[in-house]
Design a protein that fits this description.
Radius of gyration: 43 Å
Largest sheet: 5 strands, antiparallel
Number of strands: 5
Helix content: 55-70%
Oligomer: single chain
Strand content: 5-15%
Order of helices and strands: HHHEHHHHHEEHHHEEH
């Protein structure tokens, strides 16, 4: 018997497979294959029906991120000095930043809170062993963000309620603006405080110089150059007229003026320099105030989400078609092994 099996194995191995053999195989097993395909198709139809699998609707919000990071630099800077146009669409860098913000916990946690997604997705924190993990899975399953080849951002939301899908998509887009502004103000507010402190220090310094000049004024020095010129003229006149006593008195006044004149000139020069720096700080302070107190949209909305009318999932035709292909292939492989292994061995035995 063993000798016959070896001969049969050699025969099977050496025999080439022709198209006729394939056709004959499927024809021999046409009824089992037909039954397998029909049963699988009916099962796919039943499983994908609304009674078992609830349909989901897809809402999509499309926007372009902007390039403006600082409102003051975008609007209050000379055109020749602006690095970017505030009305310019964002490119690769801005699109990547937008995706990072959309996927951040700061934004998604607000989406969960604003739309009560824990309740909406039917997750009971008391009954669920890991409610946050279940919620995260649901969010990943139903909410997605994609950068298109045109550098726009798609916010796609799947939901059993079509109106809720549109609300969530538009709500995420609105939160993108809010969260982006808050992130920028994490730097804008400290920057304003730094400039404000520097401005106050500069003003205090200038006031100190002015107080010093005021003390010199109380000592009789109000304008060094004019007073020095006037004293020189009076001394010359007194000397020419022979008024020695008056000349000595004027020379004593000149000596006092000269001793404090250097301080007067230096203080005036310092005040001019410091006031120029104060002017720059005031301009910076005004810009930082604009960055903190004002806001611009960080997106150009191309298409807001609307209530979808046609379900996006499940695609019953596609499911039935793929099920037919899979069941036909699986059935064919099973029958092939059955025929080659079981029936051949039975024939040999």
């Amino acid at each position: 018997m063993e000798k016959n099996i070896n001969l049969l194995d050699e025969e099977l191995t050496a025999k080439p497979i022709h198209l006729v053999d394939v056709v004959n195989f499927f024809w021999r097993w046409r009824k089992p294959l037909l039954i397998i395909c029909v049963v699988s198709a009916l099962g796919a139809v039943v499983i994908s029906s609304p009674l078992i699998t609830k349909p989901k609707y897809k809402a999509q919000h499309v926007f372009y991120p902007t390039t403006n990071n600082s409102i003051s630099n975008a609007l209050l800077t000379e055109l020749s000095q602006r690095q970017k146009d505030p009305l310019e669409f964002g490119e690769d860098e801005e699109a990547e930043k937008a995706l990072q913000i959309l996927q951040s916990s700061a934004l998604l946690s607000r989406v969960v809170r604003n739309f009560d997604l824990m309740k909406h997705y039917g997750i009971d924190p008391k009954k669920e062993a890991h409610p946050q993990t279940a919620l995260e899975y649901k969010i990943k399953e139903n909410i997605s963000f994609e950068r298109t080849r045109y550098l726009s951002i798609n916010i796609d939301v799947l939901d059993e309620d079509p109106e809720m899908a549109a609300k969530i998509a538009n709500g995420i887009a609105a939160l993108y603006d809010t969260v982006t502004t808050e992130i920028q103000k994490q730097v804008a507010i400290p920057a304003l405080q730094i400039v404000e402190r520097a401005l106050h220090d500069k003003q205090a310094k200038i006031q100190g110089y002015k107080d010093a000049i005021r003390k010199l004024g109380e000592a009789g020095i109000t304008n060094y150059e004019e007073q020095s010129r006037a004293l020189a003229e009076e001394i010359y006149k007194a000397q020419s007229s022979g008024h020695i006593a008056q000349m000595k008195e004027l020379m004593a006044q000149q000596k006092t003026l000269v001793s404090s004149g250097g301080d007067f000139i230096a203080l005036n020069e310092l005040i001019i320099l410091e006031e120029a720096k104060e002017s720059d700080l005031i301009a910076q302070y005004e810009k930082r105030q604009v960055d903190v107190n004002e806001s611009l949209s960080h997106k150009f909305t191309v298409s807001a989400a609307f209530k979808p009318e046609i379900k996006a999932w499940p695609k019953r035709t596609l499911i039935v078609f793929l099920t037919l292909i899979a069941s036909f292939a699986a059935g064919s492989i099973f029958l092939l092994f059955y025929e080659v292994i079981y029936l051949r061995k039975k024939k040999v035995a």
